[in-house]
Amino acid sequence: MKRIFVLFCLIFVSFFSFAQSEVKNVIFLIGDGMGLAQSYAAYLRNGESLCFYEFPYTGLSITTCADRKVTDSGAGGTALAIGHKTTYQTIGLDEKGNPHLSLLKHAKQMGKSTAVICTSSITHATPASFIANVKNREQQEDIAKQYLEGYCDIAIGGGADYFKADKRKDKLDLPNELRKKGFDVVFSEKDLFESKSDRIVALLDDNHLQDAAKRGDVMEKSLRKTLDLMQKNENGFFIMLEGSKIYSKRFMEKYDVPTAPFVVLEDYNAAVEYVKAHPQQYPMVIKADGLAAGKGVKIAVDENDALETLNDYMVKGTLGDAGKKIVIEEFMPGEEMSVFYLTDGKKFIRLIAAKDYKKAYDGDKGENTGGMGCYAPHQSLTEELSDKIENLIMPGIKRGFQEENFDYRGVLYVGLMLTKEGPKVVEFNCRFGDPETQGIMPLIDEDVVKLFYQAASGNLEYEDIKWKNMFAASVVVASAGYPGSYEKGKEISFETDMKDYIHAGTKEVDGKIVTNGGRVLNAVAIGETKAEALNKAYELAAKVKFDGSFYRKDIGS
Question: Does a structural domain hold residue 548?
Fold first, then answer.
């Protein structure tokens, strides 16, 4: 095989340069969520050596959204695929809505063979960025239809439901249309690996492929088959290769970490049957498997509420792909607590705990949000409770890390419910969390750069962390309608310096600061007492105004 040029997600190379170089074959590897910080951490972990740091040519692609600070896979994938920033959830269009050819399409025009191989649906945001041009990543039926354009010779992944006539709103039989264009359309691994065609669409699951433990080596075998087919093309090839709550629940079950009993459901009809068969199980907790900005958890109060939630998540797709698979678990009454650990992969140092307020309105009313405020340290973390966490919760987590060979470094978020039976785990997250970060970071009385560097490099020398003997509080100022639909572009007026706030959903337009998200600003303060910190935070919250703004008045209660 001639030289193969391998691109990682942080590397961008123009195809126009390929035409004038010796590069013939390209494999574009996308590590979802991998940026400079992650690659540098890997570099340090590997003794300051990574193979792609030694490549003769490297570059940088900035994949942030054009309209917000935190990107999604649609805007991020589009930045990689077309070389232009775009708006949140947009696919294949620039900021102004103009379509552009992706790297894959450029490769096809140069006479190269092309392929997309992924564990998700082939209509999902990242692979779609190389195939389609749509305003919103959730237009998956439209994305599926654009495979008819023929830019992609081989597509392997999930997403059969977006191609089959009985599942599509327009009733178009895409498999038949693709066959008319010379594609071999298959629905099983057996048929994929037996196919003799050099143009294949393999739809191996209705939506995403199963997790790694169940799907086995299908990705490796798919890549090998694709390489075997494409090496016949004298012009070379371009291959895009892309490497949950459900996982965490199964992890807890396997390693005896106390949590609520649960069931995993991937089929809507099966989920409905389960709900109807368990009339005694209310309130019932229904969780979307994927990330949903803190909004993928519903506490259903009765059967109608549960069925409506299932329809929203699994049929209407209100949470996108995050709701295709769900977890239904037993409701755990009690007080919530967010506990955090800093780890270098071997040592776990517990940080202070925080109290997060997830519901939208006072008195814990309304829908779940990403968090409407917090305070720290959590006053319910007594010495007795601390011992229970260390003796009942952490041994299973540490054993799982060891047996699963997790080389994880950073902050481990452990969401707890303080039940009558003792603390139980609600969920894990690989981050501080928002708004908990705002409550914890101001209280660290250490050199945080040194602290985090040691964790990232696998050499955490600290035995304990020094904390300020104070309290911190955060109050979130949100847009009217959040966590549902809300308007953007509302001008914000500040009675004090706007730098006194943490900006979560704002942007500057014509010299004015306007709203650009649901959770707009964080008013953060510290004090000698919990009451002092909260009073200062609320004073800040009251000094910012925009049309429709609101915030909870009971943070800290």
Answer: no
CB atoms within 10 A of CB 291: 16
pTM: 0.53
Specify whether the CB–CB gap between 52 and 11 falls below 8 A.
yes
Cα–Cα distance, 165 to 417 (Å, whole number): 45
Number of domains making up the chain: 2
Distance CA 84, CA 95 (A): 8
Contacts 24+ apart (CB under 8 A), 58-62: 58/11, 59/11, 59/12, 59/13, 60/10, 60/11, 60/12, 61/9, 61/10, 61/11, 61/12
Q: In what order do the strands lie in the sheet with 326-330?
A: 262-265, 326-330, 284-288, 297-300
Provide CB contacts within 8 A for 95, sequence distance 6+. 66, 67, 84, 85, 86, 87
Q: Is 19 exposed, middle or buried (0-12, 13-18, 19+ CB in 10 A)?
A: exposed
Q: Kindly report, residue by residue over 155-208, the tens digit of the pLDDT.
A: 999 999 999 999 999 999 999 999 999 999 999 999 999 998 999 999 999 888
**pLDDT single digits (tens) 97-154:** 999 999 999 999 999 999 999 888 999 988 999 999 999 998 999 999 999 999 999 9
**Token digits of residue 476:** 């979130």
**Domain end (from 270, 305, 331):** 331
Q: Locate 501 and state its tokens.
A: 């706030």
DSSP 434: T
Identify the domain containing residue 297 by its residue range: 261-331
